[in-house]
Amino acid sequence: MAMISTRTHGVLDYVVGAAITALPHVMKCERPTATLLKMAGIGAGLYSMMTDYERGLVKVLPMEAHLALDALSGATLIGAAVMLEDEAPDVRLTLAGIGAFEIAVAAMTSPRPHVPGAPSPAGRIAEYAGVS
Q1: 3-state secondary structure of 29
Q2: What pTM does this model have?
Q3: What span, in angstroms and rounded, lies between the C-alpha atoms of 40 and 25?
Q4: What contacts 22, CB < 8 A, 6 or more positions away?
Q5: pLDDT at res. 118
Q6: Is the pLDDT assigned to residue 34 strictly greater than 90?
Q7: Residue 86 backbone phi and psi in degrees, to 5
Q8: Alpha-carbon distance 10 to 90, whole Å?
Q9: Distance between alpha carbon 74 and the CA centroid of its chain, in Å?
Q10: Residues 43, 76: contact at Cβ < 8 Å?
Q11: What does the pLDDT look like over 60-93, one tens digit per residue?
Q12: Are 109 and 2 in contact (CB under 8 A)?
């Protein structure tokens, strides 16, 4: 069930993308990990700018494709956490945590922007359940 609006997801995209890009500067990690984090953050920012949602600038990438890229990025970070055996355990755990967060947010985000005047997902659930 989608619980995160595309509007909120857009804010998360830019904040998390910037944080991931900055993370190698505040965390001791090996060069391959730093490169991975910087590329993941920059990539997320770029495809967010190209997404057809409230926070997109160019609006050429469908939201469904954006969510698939988010999940793929998350899976890549989890895979890196498993494969980068020379990396410190706290760095590997951080990679896995960010990856899990990206997958969870992608799974919980509505693939369609909210239309003003239409009931929210919570409102539709309450209406279906007969709760006013």
Answers
A1: coil
A2: 0.83
A3: 15
A4: 41
A5: 57
A6: yes
A7: -80, -10
A8: 28
A9: 8
A10: no
A11: 999 999 999 999 999 999 999 999 999 999 999 9
A12: yes
Report CA Rg, the chain: 17
The answer for 110, left when phi > 0, alpha when psi is -120 to 50, beta otherwise, is beta
DSSP class of residue 50?
A: T
Q: Which residue has the tokens 């989890």?
A: 78
* Dist CA 115 CA 71 (whole Å): 25
- Lowest mean pLDDT, pick from 22-31, 75-84, 101-110, 113-122: 113-122
CA distance 120 to 28: 43
What angle do the packed helices 89-108 and 6-26 form, to 10 degrees? Answer: 170
Q: How far apart are CA 132 and CA 129, in angstroms?
A: 9
CA-wise closest residue to 112 among 124, 102, 100, 101:
124
DSSP 36-100: HHHHHHHHHHHHHHTBSSTT-SS--B-HHHHHHHHHHHHHHHHHHHHH-TTS-HHHHHHHHHHHH
Burial degree of 42 (CB within 10 A; 0-12, 13-18, 19+) = middle
